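Q: Predict the bound structure with D-glutamic acid.
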Amino acid sequence: MFSRSAAPVGVFDSGIGGISVLAAIRRQLPAENVIYVADSGHLPYGEKPAHYIIDRALRITEYFLSQGAKAVAIPCNTATAAAIAELRRTYPGTPFVGIEPAVKPAARLTRSGVIGVLATTGTLASDKFRELVQREAPGIEVLLKPCPGWVDLVERARDADQAQALVAEPLNELLAQGADVLVLGCTHFPFLIEPIRKCVGPDLPVLETGEPFARQLRLQLQRQGLLRADGMGEVRFLTSGEPATVQDRASFLLGRRAEVARLPTQYCGLHTGQ
Ligand code: DGL
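A: Predicted complex:
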């Protein structure tokens, strides 16, 4: 008999940043079949208006559902902030799991009472993020650093000196303002951990949310009786961008060769036809 738990989980991000979270998903849910969509044709989400991201999220979800997906996981802070409420409204029968910057653990960890959050412009400007800070970090000074150039650093291989120079400036500002915990609120940023560590040293807590996100996904699937317990799952990669380019970068970040196919054309644009 066909088992619903064998159906794939749809995972999407604006590009290849979500691969930083995919490792945690594979570790914690090795039996799940995953379809990963890198929406590289519409990158970066962080500088786009919310309605644009909602449109893309709906399109990509339509694709996942056409593939029989049992759940959709969004390891993209910007897309979660902009679109998860609309996705849940539009598809009430589909479980959606979103991500959020690690403000809560950072607020618990800080001694100076100052934390720095590095994320996209869109995430930091969102109502969802404002509510998160109000709820989880009352009395804490939360310094916000939009880092528009950082996503591009990860998407296109840049040389190490260029990366170092670009990450150093906002980090030094946060340290000078007394931040003793940093939050990486964008899935692309864990891939910059080397230049970040060079700048802040080995001891400063730098938090990201891959493992808790994967735990949450596991819990949701379990609760709904959708968890696939046995076997070894596979990951299928697709992109709305240029498959060869995405394949090169994805393979580099994964540390193994990944085949990346083109997302079918009808899911690559906007409903408005742009
Ligand atoms: N990786 C995404 C995030 O976690 C968005 C990056 C972008 O496209 O601007 O926020």
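A: Residues 13-15, 17, 43-46, 76-78, 120, 123, 151, 186-188 surround D-glutamic acid (CB under 6 Å).
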